[in-house]
Specification:
alpha+beta, 5-stranded antiparallel sheet, 6-stranded antiparallel sheet
Length: about 350
């Protein structure tokens, strides 16, 4: 794996074929004004995810196209968006997609000839030399379907890092028309050697650095906290817990509901009696936010209505809930009847 912030002038040409052995083994320029933030641990995490994606993608292409296909990870780099776009050939396939729930737009890019070869195989063709032109109205939905299935494999590969829901938005042929970020925005660019039958190219995936970097940190971010920062975080946690414990919540005591016809509801008059389905031997449910957390029987405390918390019903006598300690629960809320 390589980690670099070098510009595209160093020989990197996404969308065109280049092999690992062709890359110079000499020193690479380093821009101290824009230092790389990807550590070896981050690169290793991405490497595992992308190698999983490469295996899944290879299987998907081979089974869908019925042609021997292979995808292999070549490099993971941190580049600016301008450096990435400047290194792409034109025309090429630039499939833009969202990364819900993460913000930003990502790019899956591969050569137009490879896309035409994929469509040719999908339609039962032999592959071979392909025309350099925009996709037709018949070819576009076929490529859309293949890319959407590819994004499904990307979602599976990144499950260990973040639960993504990638959705393709549009396809561009000229990289300069792809507006996935500002020119100076940092990006994580992964390059793959892609072979579909006899067609070969260099495919790339460009992810917004700010969106994915926080997920790469994960629990490792705790390790870089100082003692003062850790103490401040723990104090904030205790304050939040204390605030939640003292926050007022609305509590109600409910009878079991009863079903009625609309005609009966419309015809109700003062003095009518509505029989409830609630047995006199069954305790009422003590509920907050539609969650039953205790059971009680009605009563009074002074000039206020109240209820007495009782043990939860045994199995067979009613719904099972976690038992609540017995005791008197004075309530300022009146006992509510949710349905009459």
């Amino acid at each position: 794996m390589t980690q670099s912030t070098s510009a595209t002038g160093s020989g990197r040409t996404p969308g065109k074929m280049h092999r690992r052995g062709n890359k110079s083994s000499g020193p690479e320029p380093y821009d101290f004004r824009r230092p790389t933030k990807l550590s070896r641990e981050h690169v290793r995490t991405l490497q595992i995810a992308y190698e999983t994606f490469a295996r899944q993608y290879s299987t998907l292409l081979t089974s869908s196209l019925r042609a021997v296909s292979s995808i292999s990870l070549v490099s993971i780099e941190q580049l600016t968006y301008d450096e990435y776009i400047s290194g792409l050939s034109s025309p090429t396939i630039v499939a833009m997609f969202t990364l819900d729930p993460l913000p930003g737009t990502a790019i899956l890019e591969f050569s137009l000839s490879t896309a035409m070869a994929c469509i040719d195989h999908m339609l039962g063709g032999p592959g071979g030399p392909q025309p350099q032109r925009a996709l037709s109205d018949i070819e576009t939905p076929l490529l859309h379907s293949l890319i959407e299935r590819t994004l499904g494999e990307l979602r599976y590969a990144f499950e260990g890092i973040v639960a993504l829901r990638p959705q393709m938005t549009t396809i561009e042929y000229n990289p300069q028309f792809a507006q996935a970020g500002a020119a100076s925005d940092p990006m994580i660019v992964s390059s793959f050697e892609m072979k579909v039958g006899a067609e070969e190219c260099m495919a790339t995936i460009c992810l917004p650095f700010g969106s994915i970097f926080a997920k790469l940190q994960g629990e490792r971010g705790e390790g870089v906290l100082t003692e003062a920062q850790r103490a401040a975080r723990e104090a904030a946690y205790r304050n939040v817990v204390a605030g939640l414990e003292s926050a007022p919540i609305e509590v109600s005591v409910r009878f079991q509901p009863v079903r009625m016809h609309p005609a009966d509801l419309i015809g109700l008059q003062p003095g009518d009696v509505v029989p409830l389905a609630h047995s006199t031997s069954t305790p009422l449910a003590v509920v907050t936010a539609d969650i039953t957390f205790a059971y009680a029987v009605p009563g009074a405390q002074g000039n206020r209505m109240a209820c007495l918390v009782v043990p939860s019903p045994q199995p067979g006598q009613g719904p099972t809930h976690r038992p609540a300690p017995a005791g008197q629960l004075g309530m300022k809320n009146r006992a509510e009847e949710t349905s009459r």
